[in-house]
Prior knowledge:
Elements: E1 2-11, E2 14-20, E3 23-24, E4 29-33, H1 40-48, E5 55-59, E6 66-68, H2 81-86, H3 90-103, H4 110-125, H5 128-141, H6 158-170, E7 176-180, H7 188-199, E8 204-208, H8 212-218, E9 221-226, E10 229-234, H9 237-272, H10 279-291, E11 318-329, E12 332-343, E13 347-351, H11 355-365, E14 373-378, E15 384-387, H12 392-395, H13 402-407, H14 415-424, H15 441-455, E16 459-463, H16 471-483, E17 487-491, H17 495-501, E18 504-509, E19 511-516, H18 520-529
Parallel strand pairs: 4-8, 4-9, 6-7, 7-8, 13-17, 13-18, 15-16, 16-17
Antiparallel strand pairs: 1-2, 1-3, 1-5, 9-10, 11-12, 11-14, 18-19
Helix pairs in contact: 3-4, 9-10
Amino acid sequence: MISTSNVSLRFGGRKLFEDVNVKFTPGNCYGLIGANGAGKSTFLKILAGEIEPNTGEVIMPGDQRISVLKQDHYAYDNIQVLKTVLMGNDQLYKIMQEKEALYANPNFSDADGERASELEMKFAELNGWEAEAEAATMLAGLGIDESLHAKDMVELTAGEKVKVLLAQALIGQPDVLLLDEPTNHLDIYAIKWLEDFLANFKNTVIVISHDRYFLNKVCTHIADIDFGKVTAYTGNYDFWQQASELSQRLLADQNKKSADKAEELKSFIQRFSANASKSAQASSRQKQLEKLTFNEMPASSRKKPFINFESLREAGQDILTVDKISHSVNGEQVLKDISFMLKKGDKVILLGKNDLAKTVLLDILAGKIKPDSGSFTWGVTTTQAYLPTDNSEFFDIEPVSLVDWLRQYSTEKDESFIRGFLGKMLFSGNEALKMCNVLSGGEKVRCMFSKIMLSGANVLMLDGPTNHLDLESITAVNDGVKKFKGTVIFTCHDHEFIQTVANRVIELDTILKDDRYATYEEYIELNKKH
C-alpha cells in the first residue's frame, strides 16, 4: 500500500496540487488521469521519491518494493537484454552480483562460504531460481524474440527497448508498480499481453495512460487530478466519466434552481416591499433569499478542442489503386509487392507489428518518398491530407506566430478568422501568438489537425492520430474522424479509436497478410479462431 498525507506542490507561483490525501491499496489498479499539464507524471515522481513535495509526505511500509517504468531508453545500452530486465528487482540483482563475485574468488574462505550461504537463502526467498525464466517469459510475451535476449540493449530498436524496460518494471511482483504511459510505442499484441498481466497482478498499480480502452480493461479505480486535487473514484474510466459528468450536471441544475428561486424572491420583494400590508411577507422572502446557497463550480483544467472535417468536394467511387509497391529502408525490405484498392467511404486501419512499414507506406502515398518499385494512382476527384507521425518539418522553420503559421494553409487570410479557428483548437488569446518552434508535442498535433481541417480534403491519411494528445483531445479527434464522410487510411494503437472508426482492416508484415471488411474486434475474434 502507498498513500499521501497533505502533499502539496507548487512550481514558481503555479499550484499543481494542494493538501492531497489519497490512499492506493493492494489488489487495485488506479488510472491516474488529468489534462496535459495537470501534473500526472509529477505526482507519480513524488510517489516514487524522485521529487520532494513542498509539504506533506508519501507513506509506504519500509519492507515493500516499489517499481517504476524507466523512461531513459539509452541508460542500459551496454547491458544484456535479459540482465536489464533482472535489474528491475534491485535487491535480487545485487545478491546475484555478490554471489557471482564470491564464487569467482580463487581464494574462497570460510567467511566467504558463510556469506554465500546467507545469500543463497535470500536468493531462494526472492524466487531467484525462477527469475531468469520469468524474465524470458515476459520478454517473449511482449514480442522480444529469444534470439535478442543475450544481445546488448544498444542493438535493439527503440520500440524493442521500450518493451524491455517495461519487463524490467514488472519483474518480481513489486508491491507498488508505477507506470507512466506504458502502452506508448507498444504494438497491439504487446498491449494485449500487458492488459492480461495487469488484470492478474495482485499488488498495487498506478498507471498513466491516454488509451481509454486500456484504462477500462485494467483499472479498478480512477485517480483524477483536477481543481488542484487528486480524487479517487471506484470503477474504470467510463464509469468515472459518467459519474463526473453527472456530478457536474447535478451541481449546475442545483445552481439553476437556486437562481430561479432567487429571481422569484427578488421580484416579490421589489413589488411589495413598499406595501405595508405585504411588508412582513417581503421581509420573510428577503430572509429566504439570504439563505439560498450556490455551489461553487471550480474551473476545470480539462478543455476539449473542436475537431470537424468537412470536404470541399465529394469524391467519386475510385479513390486509390496501389499496385505492387516495394520499398527498403537501410537495405532491409519493409514492403514487398503491396497491392490494394480504396473505395469511397473506406476507413482502413493498417495493422502490423512493424510500425516503420506502415509509416513508409503512408509516406509513399503522401508523395513524401518514392517506392523502389510499383506504383499508385489517386482518383481524379480526390484531395488528400496527411498527418505524419514525424511533423518536425512543419515546425523546424523560421519562427512565426501560430496565427501566421496557420494563415499559410488557409484561403481565408483574415486574422479574426484564423484566431477563431485557433481558439477552437485551444489556442485562445495570447496562446495564438506563441512561436511555432516552442510548441509541445500535443500542441503541434493540434496545429496539424487545424491545417488538415482547413484543407477540405476528402481523403485523410493519419499516422498515429492519438500520439501526444490528452484524453479530451483524443476523444475529440476520435469523434471527428468517426463523423467524417470521406475516406480514411490510418495507423493507431488506441483500441477504442480503431474499433469506432475502422470498417476495413489491412494487415502488413512486409507483405500484405490480410485485407478484409470488418471492425477491429471482429478481426481480432476471427484471428483467434485461426
